[in-house]
Specification:
309 residues; alpha/beta; Rossmann fold; six-stranded parallel β-sheet; 9 helices; 26% strand
Length: 309
């Protein structure tokens, strides 16, 4: 894009950072990451960032605590190089599913994470399709949340017909489903899901609506175990649906989930590249669309405005 824009990548998802740099035609500032003998992380910025807009990219998953510390160290190191501004991009935000106090004595984890990130004093922060917009409200940092409609728009328009039904697998996905449906003036069905807070077991009630012969598209923010999507697709097929596809922004795919989805009633599932997806996690029904163009457009808008969101 411009010589004044540069990307710094954390260690969690360098392919995303490199893709973003290519999309923006921006440089990549090299960094050095290592570990002290006592196990503590060490970071160093190897390029000149003086007067530049620096975008630091780090998905937080798996060893999220260490990745968050690494993110903080990289931002501090960048700031000591006197940049014009520092933008943080977190494609997947760890603990974002824990956006309320589910049981007495528990923290609101996503609010705690927001406070830690606020302490970094970023110029702006870009996040992608949060489980709940409640999490965005926990941040005092100026925050731009990329909506799923910005990522899946072309794909949804390309496959939508009058026979298509947009399905929210639970009430929490209602807003997401309505937003996607608005792109094609489509209809929305919300399934009734109950999850036991202790065992996390999922149960669905009967479908309230006619899905017979319909091409159903389930939409959700994240697939972890795949339980929600698998059970929802099974219910839809048993209720007469012609097909059951799924659009999910984030693919955590914990062990065994890929195989379960592959063997399920789900005909096709489309996810994004906000998280690394290994070859072992891939299967025939899986399609991957990049979130990088949507993020890149958001970064471009920020740099053109100069400040604010």
């Amino acid at each position: 894009m411009k010589e004044t824009l540069t990307i710094v990548s954390g260690s969690s998802h360098p392919a995303f950072a490199e893709g973003l740099a290519e999309f923006l035609q921006a440089s990549v500032t090299k960094r050095e990451l290592s570990v002290f003998p006592n196990g503590e992380l060490r970071a160093r910025i190897l390029g000149d960032v003086r007067g530049k807009t620096v975008v630091v990219v780090q998905s937080l998953f798996g060893s999220a605590g260490a990745q968050l510390i690494e993110f903080a160290l990289l931002i501090d190191a960048v700031k000591r190089g006197f940049p014009q501004k520092v933008i943080g991009i977190i494609p997947w935000l760890a603990y974002s599913l824990q956006d309320e106090q589910f049981r007495t004595g528990e923290p609101i984890s996503s609010e705690s994470i927001a406070r830690l990130i606020d302490a970094l004093k970023l110029s702006e922060l870009i996040l992608i399709d949060l489980h709940s917009l409640r999490t965005a409200s926990y941040f005092k940092t100026q925050t731009r949340v990329i909506a799923p409609s910005e990522i899946f728009k072309d794909m949804l328009i390309g496959r939508y017909t009058e026979n298509t039904l947009i399905v929210a697998p639970d009430d929490g996905a209602r807003t997401r489903a309505m937003e996607l449906a608005s792109l094609v003036n489509g209809r929305v069905l919300v399934l009734k899901k109950v999850r036991d807070r202790q065992t996390l077991k999922i149960e669905y009630g009967k479908v309230k609506g006619n899905v017979a012969g319909k091409d159903c598209i389930l939409c959700d923010d994240v697939v972890v175990t795949g339980d929600t999507l698998v059970e929802a697709a099974t219910l839809l097929k048993e209720s007469g649906a012609k097909s059951a596809a799924a659009f999910c922004t984030h693919a955590l795919f914990i062990k065994g989930s890929s195989d379960r989805i592959s063997r399920s009633q789900i005909d096709e599932i489309t996810v994004t590249d906000t998280l690394p997806i290994t070859k072992a996690q891939q299967f025939d029904k899986l399609k991957i669309v990049s979130a990088i163009p949507a993020v890149g457009r958001a970064v471009s808008a920020l740099t053109k405005k100069g400040s604010g969101l």
